[in-house]
């Protein structure tokens, strides 16, 4: 029990850990709220309360992301043109993904500032731009994971390009990790398209509970990937 509490404290004391937990709670409340508000009777009020919590957590995460530009820039500069990558396609896919991620933050900041009345401009176009960049980043992440899975399939039982053999356990772990990344990105991508203007694919068509479900799935995968030492994308 003490170890579990200590582990939770360590997670909450880190920014990324706290953000992942907030994200999971946000989408879980949206899922519960969406389901409960569809019922009849007094329970609808509980559903509205869950939706209010989800809205506040989402707003909190948006404000906290105001400080993410520099950390993203540091990561992009460290990765550079990905010269350490063995696969040229993965290298350029990753570089393009970093560009999308870097542009996402200022667009979202402008949209937030417009909604808050800090600047005088329409926020709709900036929210659409940030959502589109997020969706493109997720799409690039899916393509990257599919490329890695293809390479893992080809190198099964063979030597890697660096000359070091990969054990079955390593290949199995990485394969599972990339498959989870694909599921996570697809879940978030469906929501990203939903938040695009009506008329673009299924933009604006999802019920609240479905948005919460997709977000909860990707959030839980992110927590699992962190726990086992993998990585997963998600805003």
From TrEMBL:
Q: Which residues cross the membrane?
A: 125-146
| Location, primary (coarse class) | membrane
Q: Which UniProt keywords apply?
A: Membrane, Peroxisome, Transmembrane, Transmembrane helix
Q: Where, subcellularly, is it found?
A: Peroxisome membrane
Family annotation (Pfam families) = PEX11 (PF05648)
Q: Which InterPro entries match?
A: PEX11, PEX11C_met
Top-rank taxon of the source lineage equals Eukaryota
**Name of this protein:** Peroxisomal membrane protein 11C
């Amino acid at each position: 029990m003490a170890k579990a509490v200590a582990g939770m404290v360590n997670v909450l004391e880190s920014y990324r850990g706290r953000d992942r937990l907030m994200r999971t709670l946000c989408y879980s409340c949206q899922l519960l709220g969406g389901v409960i508000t569809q019922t009849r009777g007094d329970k609808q009020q509980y559903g509205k309360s869950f939706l209010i919590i989800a809205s506040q957590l989402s707003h909190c995460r948006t404000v906290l992301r105001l400080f993410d530009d520099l950390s993203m820039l540091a990561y992009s500069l460290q990765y550079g043109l990905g010269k350490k990558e063995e696969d040229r396609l993965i290298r350029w896919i990753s570089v393009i993904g970093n560009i999308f991620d870097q542009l996402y933050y200022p667009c979202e900041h402008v949209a937030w500032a417009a909604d808050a009345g800090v600047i005088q401009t329409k926020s709709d176009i900036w929210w659409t731009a940030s959502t589109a960049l997020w969706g493109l980043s997720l799409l690039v992440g899916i393509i990257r994971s599919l490329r890695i899975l293809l390479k893992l399939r080809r190198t099964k039982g063979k030597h890697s390009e660096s000359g070091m053999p990969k054990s079955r356990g390593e290949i199995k772990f990485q394969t599972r990790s990339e498959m989870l990344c694909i599921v996570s990105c697809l879940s978030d991508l469906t929501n990203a398209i939903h938040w695009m203007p009506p008329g673009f694919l299924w933009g604006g068509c999802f019920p609240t509970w479905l948005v919460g479900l997709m977000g909860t799935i990707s959030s839980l995968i992110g927590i699992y990937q962190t726990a086992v030492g993998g990585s997963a994308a998600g805003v």
